PLP-dependent aminotransferase (Arcobacter aquimarinus), 368 residues
Amino acid sequence: MKRSFIREILEAIDEETISFAGGLPSEKLFPAEDIKIATLKAMENPKIYQYGISNGINELRTQIAARYTKEGFPTTKDNVLITTGSQQAMYILAKYFEDKDITIEEPSYLGAMNIFRLNHLKMEGVKLENDGVNVEAFENSFKNTKLTYLIPDFQNPSATTYSDEKREKIADIIKKYDGILIEDSPYGELFFDKKNVSMSSKLPKNSFHLGSFSKTLVPSLRIGWIRADEELLKSLMIIKESIDLHSCGISQYILTEYLKDEKKYEKHLQDIRDDYEKKANFFSEQLNLIMPEFKHEKPKGGMFLYGTFGDGIDTFALVQECLKKKVVYVPGNQFYIDKIPNGEIRFNYTHSTFEQIEKGIKLIKSCL
Ligand code: PMP
């Protein structure tokens, strides 16, 4: 195994470097004042300092469940397990499915691929098209693995979002083979146009739906969750207990306080969507203006813009040059199982200022 290129890059770069590499939310959108108020309120509750139950505090699980139910996916707190970020949710699931074969999208989330390797899952990649995985290739792989990890909303890295039609087709295949879906959706709320219907809602008995507050509120609280059928969730408890007994109680009580004011949270989500949409549009415009040889689609949500120069360019080699000029991105080959160099790049557009976006793209162009 190798460490994640992204985490290593984040450690290596200095303050001056323009980074399009990490999946960092915009700092100016953290609701710091409201989190402070929620924290002070939460601190008055003596329970905040005590050990808690492994599946998470009831109030927070109930709040999360209510959001699913409101969206038409009936859910109670017994369907929700709180985890230490959705990263831990994936770790728990990978441990549970240790040694199995798993169908994944290619490209896919680097952090998940590393967890799968660590737990000896054998990954089979299926090519992503611009409206989701290729359905035929998916069925060919899934009929053998009967287990899949998908990111259908504004995927990391490719920003791809599944069409309604593909969501139906993929869910039907999972049902046909009575397999399991792990649906990872940390970006589902960051839509510019409309919220998508989760694939898991079509497969309530055969799915694990992963959520997180990292991209919608603050990542440092490290709170995510798994939504699943009650019986399926029970089978994960021994793993969760073995890892950390329970996720941080202080973080959970702070979130519970914050989420009590639903309207405030909704407004905050809308502010993020508005800001990110402007950034995504600007990033795409600047690319077209400064570096038109980089082919891409304008994102419809999430935090990433993905595209390619075509096969003639090795973006892994290019990033070494870019580093010297103090600009960095993630080369696309990092998101593939075999990591063979290619012409693809993932850009994060949420963390940089408009000036940094323009300057950074000009620097990359000069290295090109
Ligand atoms: N899944 C995906 C697709 C991600 O992009 C990330 C974060 N980059 C995670 C899971 C993990 O997020 P967290 O642990 O902060 O919830």
